[in-house]
């Protein structure tokens, strides 16, 4: 199995709740504790402007490129710097590459990305570029896939992804998330809004109930799994109660 990762994902975001060092920590643990060889890691190439424009509007991309503080960038909750935008663009390239490898090899892992709160025309919730959407649109443009499924198990609803693909019959968006929490919800194709304090058995029961019918009915050629760790019981921003075993 191949992993996509770049040390350039570690950028300066100042004193911030977002754990930007997590990407490096995962990489180091895979190398040192699980002895994954260097040959199984690949450095991504940044997404091109053409690839980004398949999802994001020209005006919004211009704001990012020129570091314009506008209504389109105001709700990122991150600094607006060239370094952070470069990281976001690189992560989009990483998700594209992981998706390509998944088609070729059956599975691939991107240690980065997952910026599912970014909309086509604005930033939100620590997210500037919606790498999931960029990867899907790139592979569709290359005619490597028609149908894609996004399974989003982050604590927070993938509102940007849901909005980008709203009404698109060739992309199915699934989100299971804590309901009483950020963000303002958009309509995924299937949302599972959870009450606070849901534990492993109930959470996994929802997945076992809903995912197989989606696979059978929609028949995706590519599945992008948004592997949020924040449903964890000790996450500082949430109130779901999954254990490590439940997340695994």
Could you provide a short overview of the structure?
The protein is α/β, with parallel strands linked by helices. It has two domains: 1-143, Arginase, Chain A; 146-248. It is built from eight helices and seven strands.
Radius of gyration: 17 Å
User: How would you spell out the order of helices and strands?
Assistant: EHEHHHEHEHEEHEH
Biggest sheet, in brief? 4 strands, parallel
Helix fraction by DSSP (H/I, runs of at least 4): 25-40%
CATH topology of the largest domain: Arginase, Chain A
Cα end-to-end separation: 17 Å
- Given as residue ranges, the uncertain stretches (5+ residues, pLDDT < 50) are none
Q: List the quaternary state of the chains.
A: single chain
Please report the number of helical segments: 8
CATH class of the largest domain: Alpha Beta
Order of strands in the sheet with the most strands?
Answer: 6-5-4-7
| CATH architectural designation of the largest domain | 3-Layer(aba) Sandwich
Number of strands: 7
CATH superfamily of the largest domain: Histone deacetylase domain
Name the beta content range. 5-15%
- Average pLDDT works out at 97
| Backbone shape | globular
For the record, the count of structural domains works out to 2
SS-based class = alpha/beta
